[in-house]
Specification:
The protein is mainly beta and about 375 residues long. It is about 0% helix and about 55% strand.
Length: about 375
């Protein structure tokens, strides 16, 4: 399988549409519950799938799986002029199964880099009467789980979310054209189904962040947005390591390594996004990532890789990047919403690319790791 897709597909496909009596659902593709999953058959990919259209496809669709996923780094200043640094993750998932009502789950996380603390929250709802969009609306994104909200149109997005001690009210503005992954934004899996996938790989951040009792003004930052939807089902993989890297030379990299239950990498995807937002898919052999350390969660006992050296050797991009987590503990135990446990965290990047020194920031997601 040469191409793949963003993080939570297998989990959402299998776990979200349990009844509200959900007991547990462990890692992607593995269900542990006393409830019965609704039967869903594999969907054959239509011979001709329509291309992505903007802004019509920014909003929701009537497919099995969909999400709007944001990660980023931001700087904020308080009333005294003191600057604080944060990472954030905010995502809304939508899942559909048969005649059941749409089900939504959401995760919100803050990496407080001044306090060296990680905080997160999660929500889920069943929308009993919501009419689903059909991909033809020109109104853009309009999604919410309770008072957590995502609104957006043509790369102008608004995010609102709150949890204990933290809240965001962010305006994101796309700085580069949208990137349709795999060339046309379409990934097919044969009898496994199909998925659309695009990213806004560099979005400027404005707005406010509430840190405990203080409302801080955002003074700078960069976010990454993923939107993926389609009719695709689990195929029994173990998990993945997903990277979104934003470099100071106005270049981004999106890559992932899919591994089986034993940890063996079975599929690799890498895309180099140049300053003009042209996505170039790199051959698998041009990419090599080495874990430099490991971290064991005191909450779950799960051990994750922690720190990486990424080697790139292609005609478009050559170099070496050192990637370090800004906090060791950025683990989300999301059993109450999507039924899984995963690590997703802010990272720092230093190295050289095409014979030039570069630095940057990014996010890495790790799933499928066990005790």
């Amino acid at each position: 399988m040469r191409t793949f897709h963003r993080a939570h597909a297998w989990l959402i496909s299998l776990c979200l549409f349990l009844t509200l009596g959900l007991s547990s659902c462990s890692f992607p593709g593995i269900v542990s519950t006393s409830e019965q999953l609704p039967e869903v058959k594999a969907t054959t990919t239509p011979a001709q799938l329509p291309p992505i259209h903007f802004p019509q496809d920014e909003g929701g669709h009537g497919n099995l799986t969909e999400w709007w996923y944001y990660t980023g780094h931001l700087d904020a200043v308080d009333a005294t002029g003191k600057t604080a640094h944060y990472g954030f993750e905010f995502v809304i998932f939508q899942a559909l199964r048969g005649d059941l009502p749409p089900y939504y789950a959401s995760h919100f996380a803050i990496s407080d880099l001044n306090r060296n603390e990680f905080h997160y929250d999660q929500r889920r709802i069943a929308a009993l009467s919501k009419a689903l969009p059909d991909g033809r609306s020109v109104n853009g994104i309009d999604e919410q789980v309770g008072d957590w909200q995502i609104h957006g149109l043509n790369g102008q997005d608004q995010l609102k979310a709150t949890m204990q001690d933290y809240a965001i009210n962010l305006t994101l503005t796309g700085q580069k054209p949208v990137v349709q992954h795999n060339g046309n934004g379409l990934i097919t899996y044969g009898t496994g189904g199909f998925s659309y996938y695009y990213s806004r790989s560099r979005m400027a951040i404005a707005g406010t962040l509430q840190d405990h009792q203080q409302t801080l003004q955002i003074t700078g930052g960069i976010a990454w947005m993923d939107h993926q939807w389609g009719d695709f089902l689990a195929t029994g993989i173990g998990g993945w390591d997903w990277y979104s890297l934003q470099l100071t030379n106005n270049v981004e990299l999106m890559l992932y390594f899919i591994h089986d239950a034993t940890g063996k990498v079975i599929s690799t995807y890498a895309e180099y996004i140049d300053p003009a937002s042209q996505g170039i898919v790199l051959p698998e052999e041009a990419l090599h990532s080495t874990a430099l350390d490991h971290w064991t969660s005191p909450k779950t006992g799960i051990t994750y890789p922690s720190g990486w050296r990424l080697e790139l050797n292609d005609s478009h991009v050559k170099g070496s990047l050192l990637i370090q987590p800004l906090l060791k503990d950025q683990e989300l135990v999301a059993l109450a919403s999507t039924g899984n446990v995963y690590w997703e965290g802010a990272v720092d990047i230093q190295g050289q690319l095409n014979a030039q020194a570069v630095s940057g920031q990014g996010y890495i997601e790790l799933t499928g790791y066990s005790k």
